[in-house]
Design a protein that fits this description.
The chain is of the alpha+beta class. 29% of the residues lie in helices and 25% in strands. It has two domains: 32 residues; 39 residues, no CATH class.
């Protein structure tokens, strides 16, 4: 995608979609949506900022450098995690 001019690297590990890359991403998203509808699956959106307590309940590593980009402390003493969207997979019950 980089050589094809669909994306541009801004720094190590961070890429931006250029207009043709965004168009390709939209087409792929449409194909996946159509395939999901055909088998009765549903689409779900999740926030990038989630409470740390939620991850502690599940036993997941909260401060894993590969999956957590930033820990945000709130004024009430709780912590939230800014997570990398590509690394999040969940089981909806």
């Amino acid at each position: 995608m980089l050589r094809g001019g669909l994306i541009r690297q801004s720094c190590s590990g961070i890429y931006h979609f250029l207009p043709m890359g965004q168009r390709a991403l939209d087409k792929l998203s449409h194909l996946v949506h159509f395939a999901m509808r055909s088998v009765g699956a549903q689409k779900m959106a999740m926030p990038f900022l989630t409470p740390a307590a939620l991850w502690q309940k599940t036993g997941e590593k909260v401060l894993d450098q590969d999956g957590c980009l930033c820990v945000v402390a709130c004024s009430d003493g709780t912590h939230n995690l800014l997570l990398a969207a590509a690394s999040i997979l969940c089981d909806v019950r």
